[in-house]
Fold this sequence. Notes:
This protein is of the alpha+beta class. α3 (172-181) runs antiparallel to α4. It has 11 helices and 13 strands.
Amino acid sequence: MKTISITSNYLYSIFEQIQAQLGGKLEIKSKEYRLEIDNEIGKGFISGITIEQAICYIEYEIEFKEDASFVYKHDNSNSIHFGYCSNGCLIQSFGEDGKKNKLNQFQTGIFSNGSKKSTYFSFSKNQQIKVSMISVDTLSVYDKELKDQLKNTFKKNKENNQLSYIGSLNLKIAEKIDILNAIKQKGIVRNLLINSNVYLILALEIEQHKYDLTKAGNSFNSLSQSDMKIVKRISEYIMMNPEIQYSLKYLCKKFGVSSFKLQEGFKIMHNRTVTDFIRNIRVEVAENLIRTSELNISEIVYTVGLTSRSYFSKIFKEKYNCSPKHYQNHQNKVVIIG
């Protein structure tokens, strides 16, 4: 077992301590940290960014060659950790011999520790993991409304001020993490995009907790982890191939899933029906083509799998509050002025 001891609340010190114990090459750009590891301990990276004084984001995308535990030994009585597992699994406990709480793929986890016991986040060897963690110091949060909500929801009336909550499956968060990782901009634009996405992920974590509480005690069927993986694959397939003439029968047969699980999965993941999701993807792809290609509106309609230009204009206006032609003309003016 490889144990990595962390005794600081500050991201810079955290990454210094991790590097000292795991090795690897640490790159620092502005408020971003990235530790590349490729040695006898593991292969992959750990990255992090400070969002504000009270909030930091850390992502583990690595495969350890032996069991590994990150042990937070500092006083973290004011901290709340919002975790999400995109791949593999995470084991959390308070103290080495405490109850083991397992965060599986596509699950959210919320952890808070007010006792003298250290908080353990553990990973199994030879397992590809991708885990994201947003840590919030409730004492230093600027926004009073957010501070009060966090304290009243996650810190109030908890035994020993300890909280270990494992949520139900959620694919929307995985989607937002992928968007966060795909940000290529630099400078202030990059900072603003990263900050907004981390806040959005945090909001989804809190929303998931509220949702699970409302469902507690009710008898309802949740989709399995394998079902949600299929829904994720179907979503990605539609996004990559918007031009196909889809039907529920076609998708069910192609991916081997029942109509009920398909519809239920899209409701859970996207809060949309399958048909509405396809329509929305086509409009978004069309908007991108208007901005980035020289195709005319009729060609774009055909490219995204629609056959009626008037119908396309209707759904485009519903989403963007203007006609496709007006939007295209505006883009052209911007190019000319630039």
